[in-house]
Amino acid sequence: MRVEELRPPSGARKRRKRVGRGTGSGHGKTACRGSKGQNARSGRGTKAGFEGGQMPLQRRLPKRGFRNPFRKEYSIIHVGDLNRFPRDTVVEPDLLIESGLLKKGERVKLLSDGELQHPLTVRVHQVSKAAIKKVEAISGRVEVIGS
C-alpha cells in the first residue's frame, strides 16, 4: 500500500447538508427548520443560558464573594532556590527567567524557606521579613523593585 492509495473507511466522511436548495433535495422549503416558531425565524436562536423564559441558572444562584480587578499575582521563589547562582551574583527577574525558576512577565516574591550558602544581591518585587533576615545574615542584600 502506498500513501496515495490511502482512503478513509466508507461512511467516515459525510457530505454537508445543503438546505434551502429546492424541494427535490429533501431539504428545501423550510430548510429543516420545521414550520413556525422561534427557531424557524430568521435571526433565530437564543442567547447562551436561555431556558425558555424560566429564570436562568446563573440568575437563580446566589452571588458569592468578590473578585478584585486590581489583584497582583506573585510567583514564589524560596531563599533555598537561590543557591544555584554563584557568589555575589545580582539575582534579578531576568536571571530567574533564564534559569527556569520564573515565567516571563511574572512578579516575584521571595520567601524564607531554605538556607542560603553564600552572599547574593537579590532584586525582587516583594520579600518577606524572614527572607530579608536570612539573606542579610550572610552579608547579602535585598532590593525591592517596582513592577
Characteristic terms for this protein:
elongated; single chain; 3-stranded parallel sheet; 14% helix; 15% strand; 6 strands; alpha/beta; Ribosomal Protein L15, Chain: K, domain 2
Describe the model.
The chain is of the alpha/beta class and 147 residues long. The chain has a domain at 74-144: Ribosomal Protein L15, Chain: K, domain 2. 14% of the residues lie in helices and 15% in strands. It has helices at 57-60, 93-99, 129-137, and strands spanning 74-78, 90-91, 107-111, 121-124, 126-127, 141-144. The strands form two sheets. It has a three-stranded parallel β-sheet. A three-stranded parallel β-sheet has the order 2-4-6.
Task: Please outline what is shown here.
By secondary structure, this protein is α/β, with parallel strands linked by helices.
Order of helices and strands: HEEHEEEHE
Radius of gyration: 32 Å
Task: Please work out how many helical segments DSSP would assign.
Answer: 3
CATH level-3 fold name of the domain at 74-144: Ribosomal Protein L15, Chain: K, domain 2
The percent range for helix content is: 10-25%
Low-confidence stretches: none
Report the CATH architecture of the domain at 74-144: Ribosomal Protein L15, Chain: K, domain 2
Largest sheet: 3 strands, parallel
N→C terminal distance: 61 Å
What's the overall geometry? Answer: elongated
- Numbering strands along the chain, what is their spatial order in the largest sheet? 1-3-5
CATH class type of the domain at 74-144: Alpha Beta
Structure class: alpha/beta
Strand fraction: 5-15%
Oligomer: single chain
What is the arithmetic mean of pLDDT?
92
Overall number of strands: 6
